[in-house]
């Protein structure tokens, strides 16, 4: 039996990717026993117990596959454990370049849940509405046979693809210089993938003396495209119009961009979401003088300096009207001039963000450690659009004190709970529910608790006695049993330093 759920297909990229992988490519949160190990989870195989099953006590089960290299994935298939009552009826699919920072796959309608199996033998294939490029995949069971247990065998379909990567360090760019003084085009096709942890930065720019320009840049974690044809009045005007697509694109994950222009009609696609618009100005062609710049807008006559903040991150498969810009740069062709330090690999980020879902059970627990001078301190970064949410909860000595840092009505509020109903509160005046990264420093030394946000003057409250953390620090955690009503909605990313 074989069932297929259609969500889109690439007929040239449907080869099986899992069947030939070694045992070392499979990992899991747990296994019932060695016979139920993750490496037994290959489609239609009967090895071991006929598939993977986690321990019955596993509260957050997952099965992970390492494809050994970054590949293009177009479909996934699942099957229950052979000749059993164990199967998974729905699941989530996560993907990653590194096996550290994960992103959840979502269909075009925004739904992340995949339909799984109704018995142990039928194969259910889900074709992805938009392919992903990843090395690691993780299957996260949501529902399973209520009369049995979780059982899983999997296959992944796709193909290899050629990757041309360049990394920009925030002070570099690539200049593609034309053979003639200017380049006039009626049709343009520009495509690239990028990933960055910076909310600002120019990805590409070109302009002409007649007033034409094209600029694609990250701004506040979103993509802005400025495009003007033959209208010098708009060149220096503060009223120039940007088309904005996407959000939270500075999340250290790859994002795809595709720009198609024919005359005044433009399609801008970011991660499968397309916006259609018409250019400003009276002309139908884009005239750019001398060069296109990727990674920044160089200041004329001053190499290495930029008009706007330049891009800090990685670009992959950057094409301008069929020209492979990164390949030309890597081969040091004369059409490409490199400004600053552009390298042809993509380093792994030092900091990895984690996402707290809208759930009271979504939290991170870290062991606490007292400083040499007494008390404790914590530094982290977060971002959210939610006006309310618990960021940090710390049990304190002497008991039953505890410290809570939360967002309340878009502002940070620090609360020290003492015995009984006693509590001390201090709030900051900054609005932090704007989707941007904010840094927080919390310190409990010298008989005071201080909190600093984004380097602004700190807010503090006095202590009667020095406090110390007791047990773990809880980030994004639900309130303790004694804390009363807790914020329910959270969608907070954090980078934590101790």
Automatic annotation (TrEMBL):
<comment type="similarity">
    <text>Belongs to the neurexin family.</text>
</comment>
<feature type="domain" description="Laminin G">
    <location>
        <begin position="353"/>
        <end position="498"/>
    </location>
</feature>
<keyword id="KW-1133">Transmembrane helix</keyword>
<dbReference type="Pfam" id="PF02210">
    <property type="entry name" value="Laminin_G_2"/>
</dbReference>
<feature type="domain" description="Laminin G">
    <location>
        <begin position="165"/>
        <end position="346"/>
    </location>
</feature>
<protein>
    <recommendedName>
        <fullName>Contactin associated protein-like 5a</fullName>
    </recommendedName>
</protein>
<dbReference type="InterPro" id="IPR001791">
    <property type="entry name" value="Laminin_G"/>
</dbReference>
<dbReference type="InterPro" id="IPR008979">
    <property type="entry name" value="Galactose-bd-like_sf"/>
</dbReference>
<keyword id="KW-0245">EGF-like domain</keyword>
<keyword id="KW-0732">Signal</keyword>
<dbReference type="InterPro" id="IPR013320">
    <property type="entry name" value="ConA-like_dom_sf"/>
</dbReference>
<keyword id="KW-0812">Transmembrane</keyword>
<feature type="domain" description="F5/8 type C">
    <location>
        <begin position="9"/>
        <end position="159"/>
    </location>
</feature>
<dbReference type="InterPro" id="IPR050372">
    <property type="entry name" value="Neurexin-related_CASP"/>
</dbReference>
<keyword id="KW-0472">Membrane</keyword>
<dbReference type="GO" id="GO:0016020">
    <property type="term" value="C:membrane"/>
</dbReference>
<dbReference type="Pfam" id="PF00754">
    <property type="entry name" value="F5_F8_type_C"/>
</dbReference>
<dbReference type="InterPro" id="IPR000421">
    <property type="entry name" value="FA58C"/>
</dbReference>
């Amino acid at each position: 039996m074989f069932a297929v759920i259609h969500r889109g297909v690439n007929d040239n990229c449907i080869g099986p990717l899992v069947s030939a992988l070694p045992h070392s490519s499979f990992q899991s949160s747990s296994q019932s026993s060695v016979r139920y190990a993750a490496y037994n989870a290959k489609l239609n195989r009967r090895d071991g117990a006929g598939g993977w099953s986690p321990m019955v006590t596993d509260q957050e089960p997952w099965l992970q596959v390492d494809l050994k290299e970054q590949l293009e994935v177009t479909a996934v298939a699942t099957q229950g454990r052979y000749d059993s009552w164990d199967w998974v009826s729905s699941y989530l699919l996560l993907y990653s370049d590194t096996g550290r920072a994960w992103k959840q796959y979502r269909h075009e309608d925004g739904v992340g849940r995949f339909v799984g199996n109704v018995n142990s033998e039928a194969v259910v294939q889900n074709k992805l509405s938009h392919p992903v490029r990843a090395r690691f995949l993780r299957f996260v069971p949501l529902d399973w046979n209520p009369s049995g247990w979780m059982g899983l065998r999997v296959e992944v379909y796709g193909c290899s693809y050629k990757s041309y990567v360049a990394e920009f360090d925030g002070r570099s760019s690539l200049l593609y210089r034309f053979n003639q003084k200017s380049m006039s085009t009626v049709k343009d096709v520009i495509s690239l993938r990028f990933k960055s942890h910076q909310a600002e930065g120019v990805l590409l720019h070109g302009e002409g003396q007649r007033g034409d320009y094209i600029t694609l840049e990250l701004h506040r974690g979103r993509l802005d495209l400025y495009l003007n044809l033959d209208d010098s009045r708009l060149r220096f005007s503060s009223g120039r119009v940007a088309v904005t697509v996407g959000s939270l694109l500075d999340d250290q994950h790859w994002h795809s961009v595709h720009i198609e222009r024919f005359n005044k009609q433009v399609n801008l696609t970011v991660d499968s979401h397309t916006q259609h618009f018409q250019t400003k100005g009276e002309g139908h062609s884009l005239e750019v003088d001398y060069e296109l710049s990727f990674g920044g807008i160089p200041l004329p006559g001053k190499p290495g300096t930029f008009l706007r903040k330049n891009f800090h991150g990685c670009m992959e498969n950057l094409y301008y009207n069929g020209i492979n810009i990164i390949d030309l740069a890597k081969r040091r062709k004369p059409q490409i001039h490199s400004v600053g330090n552009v390298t042809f690999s993509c380093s792994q980020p030092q900091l990895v963000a984690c996402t707290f879902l809208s759930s009271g059970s979504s939290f991170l627990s870290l062991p606490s450690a007292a400083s040499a001078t007494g008390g404790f301190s914590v530094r982290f970064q977060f971002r959210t659009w939610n006006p309310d949410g618990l960021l940090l909860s710390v049990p304190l000595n002497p008991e039953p004190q505890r410290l809570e840092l939360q967002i309340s009505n878009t502002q940070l509020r620090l609360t020290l709970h003492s015995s009984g109903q006693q509590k001390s509160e201090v709030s900051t005046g900054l609005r932090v529910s704007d989707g941007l990264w904010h840094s927080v420093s919390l310190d409990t030394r010298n008989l005071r608790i201080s909190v600093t946000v984004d380097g602004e003057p700190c807010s503090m409250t006095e202590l009667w006695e020095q406090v110390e953390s007791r047990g773990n620090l809880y980030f994004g955690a639900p309130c303790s049993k004694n804390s009363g009503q807790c914020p329910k909605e959270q969608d907070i990313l954090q980078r934590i330093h101790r």
